[in-house]
Design a protein that fits this description.
Number of helices: 12
Bound molecules: nicotinamide-adenine-dinucleotide
Structural class: alpha/beta
Shape: globular
Order of helices and strands: EHEHEHEHEHEHEHHHEEEEEEEHHH
Radius of gyration: 21 Å
């Protein structure tokens, strides 16, 4: 891509699967210049730094003081996001942090507070917001084209295959991911981005998958109610043999549904499809999305290559990051913490219900 602006100088913290995707995309985008790569694994950092023509920093605390860094992209495991984000914002850096912003509600809100005090910007990797077809849904919903918003629906249900011998992998550890609902936060974010802060949340989760499956809490059902009176339902499963990946928003005049397994957004009026467009503008990217949906689903390991649709999504995301850094409108600015706060509340309800069930079972055993 070609831009007439001074490049944004970027450091990438975390040179694993997604840090690599982000750094390579920045290397290929004139709006950015990658100046530094930092990872606890210096071999991995050196290798990525070589690929993008940047230097390596071995200690994350060096990023705060680096004079040639405007923006730090954080792509480390989820439980490290909030502390790194807050430290960098306090040092006046802008931060783009991968989702989820934090794995607890208070940490997410503390990051937003730090952003309020900082000269830097806080942007979260809610990449689905930036996909052109979904961005169009947002604008239609916000401009009143759908009438009064009544209902939202989000689903990410598939069967995740876990590699053998990955027992201590952070992506299978709820203490480091925040649990599946926060790790796979994208559709929950779309719902709260468009409908606002939920005023009521009801969540339940199925029994954990048997040993070897990812992670605990693999089947979640969450209902949300919003101040406007709109309601939403969100489903997430890593154990679903019938896969579903969609996002819908319905109003009094029309409904819009993005089906991420087909790459198509459909507008419905009176039950009939009244318009359709792609999730991406490029048919190749939509075809790649369809192709990925057909394949075995797994968490990506470091060293994996992003499929074409993900690269296309990151290109869209970079355009939104660059716009935000230039002080222009960007879909990544609004509601950075809402989905984490909602998701963490849902997770807390699930944990409390599990604990109550465990107590009831032990009371029954003891004959209380
Ligand atoms: N937006 C998306 O669609 C998407 C897709 C994949 C991953 N992600 C997010 O990207 C982040 C990274 O995921 P990944 O798949 O690249 O994981 P990964 O395990 O491949 O990479 C993580 C890297 O962080 C490094 N690291 C760990 N702790 C660190 C620390 N404290 N300081 C510096 N480096 C540290 C590790 O050495 C590793 O290289 C996660 O938050 C994940 O949720 C987002």
């Amino acid at each position: 891509m070609s831009h007439s602006h001074v490049p944004i100088r970027v450091a990438v913290l975390g040179s694993g699967f997604f840090g690599t995707t982000l750094a390579l995309a920045c290397r290929d985008d004139d709006a950015f210049e990658v100046t530094a790569i930092c990872d606890l694994d210096s071999t991995s950092a050196d290798e990525l730094a070589r690929r993008v023509g940047a230097r390596t920093l071995s200690d994350p605390s060096q990023l705060a003081a680096a004079a040639d860094v405007d923006l730090v992209m954080i792509a480390t495991p989820n439980h490290t996001h909030a502390a790194a984000t807050i430290a960098l914002l306090n040092a006046g850096k802008s931060v783009f942090v991968e989702k989820p912003l934090a794995i607890t509600g208070p940490d997410a809100l503390a990051a937003v507070e730090a952003a309020g005090r900082s000269t830097g910007l806080l942007l979260v990797g809610h990449v689905e917001r930036t996909m052109p077809g979904i961005k169009r849904m947002y604008h239609a919903a916000r401009s009143g084209e759908l009438g009064t918003l009544l209902e939202g629906y989000g689903s990410r249900s598939r069967l995740i295959h876990v590699p053998q011998g990955a027992d201590n992998w952070w992506k299978l550890d709820g203490a480091r991911t925040g649990g599946e609902l926060l790790h796979e936060i994208h559709e929950l974010d779309l719902l709260t981005w468009i409908l606002g802060d939920p005023v009521e949340i009801r969540a339940t989760a199925g029994a954990p998958r048997p040993a070897g499956g990812p992670p605990e809490d693999s089947v979640h059902k969450t209902t949300l109610k919003f101040a406007s009176g709109a309601v939403a339902y969100h489903e997430l499963s890593t154990s679903a043999h019938v896969a579903d990946w969609r996002f819908r928003i319905s109003g009094t005049l029309a409904a819009l549904e993005a089906n991420l397994r087909t790459g198509v957004v459909s507008q419905y009026t009176d039950g009939q499809v009244s318009a359709q467009w792609g999730i991406f503008d490029s048919e190749q990217a939509n075809a790649s999305l369809r192709d990925s949906a057909e394949r075995k689903q797994a968490y990506n390991a470091a060293g994996a290559t992003s499929p074409l649709w993900m690269q296309a999504a990151v290109e869209c995301e970079l355009a939104e990051i660059a716009a935000a850094m230039r002080g222009e409108e960007s879909v990544l600015i609004e509601a950075p913490a809402t989905a984490v706060v909602a998701g963490a509340e849902a997770m807390a309800q699930v944990a409390a219900a599990r604990q109550a069930a465990a107590h009831a079972a032990s009371d029954a055993l003891a004959g209380v």
